[in-house]
Amino acid sequence: MRILVKLGGTLLDSPEVRDALAAQIAEARRSEIEMVVVHGGGKQMTRYLAERGIASRFVNGLRVTTPETVDAVLKVFAGSVNHELVASLNRAGAPAVGLTGIDAFLVEAEQMDAALGAVGRVTKSNPALLELLAAHGYLPVVACVAGDRQGQVYNVNADQMAVACAAAFGARQLIFLTDVEGVLDGARQVRQVLTADEAGRLISGGIATGGMQAKLDAALAALRQGVEQVRIAPGAAEGVLARILAGGEIGTQLVASEVAA
Question: What is the rounded distance in angstroms from the CA atom of residue 78 to the CA atom of residue 116?
Fold first, then answer.
């Protein structure tokens, strides 16, 4: 079975949580699961910029990416965050390879909006590199940076990067491990199962906003692109990955029924 695990940057900011997740990923791979990991790093990016006196600006939840911010994207997402995670996975026994979407045209993008600078919209994902690494027992670990055929570098939303890679890799399951318990409904209760229509109503009703709206949009896109199962779950929960893979009730599972075209 193929799965893709997307790790939120907040989780990776804690060495203890990062190492615990790395151990769980390594253990899951021992049961003949082929896996790809995609990660963010927004918290680390904001801190890196602040330390250099650069203010972070956001429009609709997307970081305005100036030329100096692109440099930081490469240093933080593709650099420290990616390599610290790869090191943790290697230590846990999972032979990991750090990548970005730029490598071998893994994920191609185009500029989303001139007002956002170098923020990219994914246009294509090419799974050949993921296939090659997985076939030889390696674990691809992809930072949320993409490029185009002209050599431009783009900062890409990590959830969108995860969807693109999951669909191209033929992942059966996409697991978003994040810093929340799951998707909350209007009564502020975590929903164990959520249909596409219900997710849409949470968005249109203003209940799911900001980061959770982005997660739901990404989850619905994944279902439309052929991923069978999507889960949004708390990454810091004990044994979260094993519990999800065993079918346990943790976080929110999104189901493909009535997914709009």
Answer: 20
